[in-house]
Amino acid sequence: MRWDYWRWHGNENIEHFRPEDVVWLWEAEGETVAVLNPEGRGEAFLQTHPAWHTPELLTAMVKQAETSLAGAGADGRRRLCVWAGAFDPTLQALLASRGYARGEWPEYQRRRAIEAEGVPTNAPAVAPGYTVRALGDADELPRRSWVSWRAFHPNEPDDKYQGWTWYRNLQRAPLYRRDLDLVAVAESGEHAAFCTVWFDDVTRTATFEPVGTAPEHQRRGLGRAVMAEGLRRAQRLGATLALVASFGAAAHALYEAMGFTDYELLERWEKSI
Fold this sequence. Notes:
The protein is an alpha+beta fold and 273 residues long. The chain folds into two domains: 2-102, Aminopeptidase (3-Layer(aba) Sandwich); 112-265, Gcn5-related N-acetyltransferase (GNAT) (Aminopeptidase, 3-Layer(aba) Sandwich), CATH 3.40.630. It is 31% helix and 31% strand. It is built from eight helices and 13 strands. Strands 1, 2, 3, 4, 5, 6, 7, 8, 9, 10, 11, 12 and 13 form a 13-stranded mixed β-sheet that branches. A hairpin with a 5-residue loop joins β2 and β3. α3 crosses α4.
């Protein structure tokens, strides 16, 4: 799912990389065993098959990232951030040996089981005056885009808002399902909160990305309400595991309240090239 979200939102709507310029594959025995790609500029993500997670392959991938993915910092120097799991001592040792230092703001990769039956724990009733449902047709995209802007850019002036057509790219992602793109709607018809669930029926996982509430509608349990509905819908589809990522204190608190208490850290390792 993470690849889809980067490909159809992060890249199509924000970075505009040519994939052939920033994605590298390593093959062995006729199979793809590793992929290197960015998400933002000056960042590198390394994915390797467990059987090929060796210092030799990781070194080749990091060298490629240093050559091709480093970005210019404010001081004009080229910098690279490589994301490495705290659970990955092989990659972390390699980065330390090459002069990288662990940075701030790790990603909490959270997970929880989805019960085989019953309503998910800590599921609140929907606040009076609101309804939780799936996103409607194309005429609702401006409202869905606006609530996203309000949730993630609460202190930005409204004249920086760039419209809603970007949402069409998100809906092109292979795993996108409109019945799992959920919104909390006020009596006025205004979208107040949202969460999009990406269900993979092969791994039976449901990933929540993104989740947000407009500032003027916060502290009414709407974030928990849309997530609870997402868990129920994923449960009916046969999902057994739910995933979500968080960075800040407010997101940590929301997801822990929804049962996402187990996590692994994905950490930033940074270096001037």
